[in-house]
């Protein structure tokens, strides 16, 4: 009998989600005091988004607007400085879905997708799940992407039809600047599609952050993705968007399931875009707390690359003479204290943990748990 599941699907390592908090608590006999594993906005969504959701609750028996007409209108207004036409917008069930649809609509058999590694795991799943190869370019995670290595590989590998860059990157938190992107885009073959994933864009304070939307307007084979899951606090409603050339948007629309963006996600996303105050609060809080996380971990001896997002990655010890950090042991020790972080073994980083910025209460729990781990380490 022939195989039931296609070989390229069988060879995928599935995304490993965290267990529900209640189940973790039951299994380990603990009480979770901080969930710092998925880079959600610890302040929650805009009160205006809550209001919009409550108002729409009576309409959930109806199918959503398949064209996301009003949401596209709001997105276009939000980006009025870039003069975005509504036919340049793709709405997705999270950026995740958009990335999958882009891979499916842009890559044929024998084509490859390229991205730096480690980066967001969905880039790998989206290409390999469609039966395509991936070309993954390693880089020094403390420093950020190696654009020279990327350019060289792309020049020598004609099968590469799609390049995806996260800015800032997950799981490292590192970001790249205007000049690096401009130089890279000028070298990239014109028919190669470049996706710039700006999931954490709202947290950027660096003035040198590139204007990827302007690049998209001048280089049509460029796609910029944004999400409502992070700074907008709508991860549970699964909604994101991409800005691109109408030809790409039409291609994706042919594949897209008509009702992919749900009723509540559409109204909450619109309300969030209109709430500049909540966005500013989320930004201010994150910058202040992220600084404390960077300083706090560095003071305790960890090596922590600069982060531009709402999380930090600790990777080993600053003192290179010290024994390798056992990140799995640290993860488990924090978990026993009720603090959930993200171990990065799935990204091939066995001495690293990713930790999202939390509320003041969650942060206290984090530092208590980290100090206890360090004390236990010292006692051994
Ligand atoms: C770089 C990056 N892109 C995209 C996403 C996914 O966002 P969404 O929730 O919109 O699917 C994430 C989520 O962790 C991310 O880190």
In short:
This protein is of the alpha/beta class.
Strand content: 5-15%
Compute the number of helices: 14
Class per helix and strand makeup: alpha/beta
**Ligands and ions found:** pyridoxal-5'-phosphate
- What sequence of helices (H) and strands (E) makes up the elements? HHEHHEHEHEHEHEHEEHHHEHEEEH
Q: Which stretches are poorly predicted, pLDDT < 50 over at least 5 residues?
A: none
Mean pLDDT: 96
> In the CATH hierarchy, what is the class of the largest domain?
Alpha Beta
Could you give a short account of the major beta sheet? 7 strands, mixed
Number of domains: 2
Give the N-to-C terminal Cα separation.
Answer: 56 Å
CATH superfamily of the largest domain: Type I PLP-dependent aspartate aminotransferase-like (Major domain)
Walk me through what this model shows:
- By secondary structure, the chain is an alpha/beta fold.
- The chain folds into two domains: 7-44 and 277-379, Aspartate Aminotransferase, domain 1 (Alpha-Beta Complex); 47-275, Type I PLP-dependent aspartate aminotransferase-like (Major domain) (Aspartate Aminotransferase, domain 2, 3-Layer(aba) Sandwich), CATH 3.40.640.10.
- The protein is 41% helix and 14% strand.
- It contains 14 helices and twelve strands.
- The chain has helices at residues 7-10, 21-28, 47-56, 69-78, 94-106, 122-128, 147-156, 178-187, 212-218, 246-255, 263-274, 276-299, 327-336, 360-379, and strands at residues 34-35, 89-92, 112-117, 133-138, 160-166, 193-197, 222-227, 240-243, 311-315, 339-340, 342-343, 352-356.
- Strands 2-8-7-6-5-3-4 form a seven-stranded mixed beta sheet, sandwiched between helices. A three-stranded antiparallel beta sheet has the order 9-12-11, with helices on one face. Strands 1-10 form a two-stranded parallel sheet.
- Helix 6 links the parallel strand 3 (112-117) and strand 4.
- Helix 4 (69-78) packs parallel to helix 11 (263-274).
- 45% of the residues are buried.
- The model has no long low-confidence stretch (mean pLDDT 96).
- The structure holds pyridoxal-5'-phosphate (PLP).
- Pyridoxal-5'-phosphate binds next to helix 5.
- Pyridoxal-5'-phosphate (PLP) binds next to helix 5.
């Amino acid at each position: 009998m022939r195989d039931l599941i296609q070989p390229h699907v069988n060879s995928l390592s599935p995304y490993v989600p965290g267990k529900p908090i209640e189940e973790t608590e039951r299994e380990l006999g603990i009480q979770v005091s901080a969930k710092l594993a998925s880079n959600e906005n610890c302040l929650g969504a805009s009160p205006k988004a809550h209001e919009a959701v409550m108002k729409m609750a009576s309409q959930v028996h109806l199918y959503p607007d398949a064209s996301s007409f009003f949401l596209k209108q709001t997105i276009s207004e939000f980006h009025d400085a870039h003069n975005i036409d509504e036919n340049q917008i793709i709405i997705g069930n999270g950026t995740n879905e958009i990335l999958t649809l882009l891979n499916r609509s842009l890559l044929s058999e024998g084509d490859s997708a390229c991205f730096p590694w480690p980066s967001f795991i969905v880039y790998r799943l989206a290409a390999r799940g469609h039966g395509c190869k991936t070309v993954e370019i390693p880089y020094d995670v403390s420093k950020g992407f190696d654009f020279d290595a990327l350019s060289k590989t792309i020049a020598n590998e004609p099968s590469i039809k799609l390049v995806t860059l996260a800015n800032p990157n997950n799981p490292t938190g590192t970001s790249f600047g205007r000049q690096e992107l401009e130089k890279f885009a000028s070298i990239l073959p014109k028919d190669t599609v470049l996706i710039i994933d700006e999931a954490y864009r709202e947290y950027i304070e660096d003035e040198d952050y590139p204007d990827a939307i302007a690049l998209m307007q001048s280089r049509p084979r460029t796609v910029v993705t944004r999400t409502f899951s992070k700074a907008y606090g709508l991860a549970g409603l699964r909604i994101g968007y991409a800005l691109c050339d109408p030809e790409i948007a039409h291609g994706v629309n042919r594949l897209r399931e008509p009702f992919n963006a749900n009723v509540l996600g559409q109204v909450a996303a619109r309300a969030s875009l209109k709430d500049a105050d909540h966005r500013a609060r989320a930004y201010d809080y994150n910058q202040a707390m992220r600084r404390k996380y960077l300083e706090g971990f560095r003071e305790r001896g960890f090596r922590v690359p600069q982060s531009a997002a709402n999380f930090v990655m600790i990777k080993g010890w600053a003192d290179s003479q010290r024994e390798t950090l056992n990140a799995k042991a640290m993860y488990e020790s924090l978990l026993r204290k009720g603090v959930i972080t993200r171990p990065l073994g799935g990204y091939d980083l066995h001495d690293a943990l990713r930790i999202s910025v939390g509320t003041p209460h969650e942060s206290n729990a984090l530092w208590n748990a980290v100090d206890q781990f360090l004390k236990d380490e010292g006692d051994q």
